[in-house]
Design goal:
- By secondary structure, the protein is an alpha+beta fold.
- It has 2 domains: about 40 residues; about 180 residues, Domain of unknown function DUF5300 (Immunoglobulin-like).
- It has 2 helices and 14 strands.
- The chain has a 6-stranded antiparallel β-sheet, with no helix packed on it.
- The longest helix is centred in the N-terminal third of the chain and has 41 residues.
- It is globular, with a radius of gyration of 25 Å.
- The relative contact order is 0.11.
């Protein structure tokens, strides 16, 4: 009986020691995981340059599908080799059910010298819509990101400038267009998101007008059936 009673403190010490070791391992794994996540968020995985080599864009972050920790892909923009815009958010994937960047946007092209597009060629098989982007703000637009199935970065857009972009038709019954950006003077262009119901009308070729004005952006269409 005495031996059994004397062994209880030993069992307690072993339990405490085992618990502390287990906690230490968990904390170590957490620290390593956080460090790996931070490293992945800042790691550049692709660089692309404009046709005239005026602009270059570094894509950084995690382009795959997340398991436990959310993944982001952002862009750093350079003009003539100098930093121009940093940390432009392009894509977020919160869990394994979300579309990864590498699956949704594996292709890159420059529709104009100051516009880069991240896209998937197969998405254009059902046709395309047209985005008319206008700078009516009276200021130079340093960078505007537009998400319309494809993702566009419009860089260094002069006051009064206008451009036409082709975007894939919606892959469902709703065509969503999102944009945000920043002007040369540091003024932010707050996120603007508009959805258009295309139920039963996906075959229509639609044109959307994206205007950035001094009071903010507007996204609209004047075509019947595209609302």
């Amino acid at each position: 009986m005495g031996n059994r009673s004397g062994s209880r403190p030993s069992y307690t010490r072993k339990f405490v020691l085992t618990s502390l070791v287990g906690l230490g391992v968990v904390l170590l794994i957490a620290v390593v995981g956080v460090r790996a996540w931070v490293t992945k968020r800042t790691a550049v995985f692709t660089t692309t340059s404009s046709p005239q080599n005026t602009y270059s864009v570094n894509l950084k972050g995690a382009k795959g599908r997340p398991l436990l920790i959310p993944y982001w892909v952002s862009a750093d923009v350079y003009k003539i080799g100098e930093p121009y815009v940093t940390d432009v958010l392009l894509h977020q994937a919160w869990d394994a059910f979300d579309l990864s960047f590498e699956l949704g946007f594996p292709d890159i092209r420059w529709p104009a010298n100051n516009v880069v597009e991240f896209y998937r060629e197969e998405y254009f098989e059902d046709g395309s819509d047209v985005l008319i982007v206008q700078n009516r703000s009276g200021k130079n637009l340093r960078c505007v990101s537009i998400d319309a199935v494809s993702k566009f970065l419009v860089i260094d857009m002069r006051p009064g400038a206008s451009l036409s972009l082709k975007a894939p038709k919606s892959r469902g019954d709703v065509q969503s267009i999102d944009l945000e950006g920043v002007m040369d003077d540091g003024t932010t262009i707050s996120n603007q998101s508009v959805s258009f119901n295309r139920t039963g009308r996906r075959a229509l070729d639609c044109t959307y007008l994206v205007s950035i004005t001094e009071s903010g952006p507007t996204i609209e269409t004047r075509m019947t059936g595209c609302q």
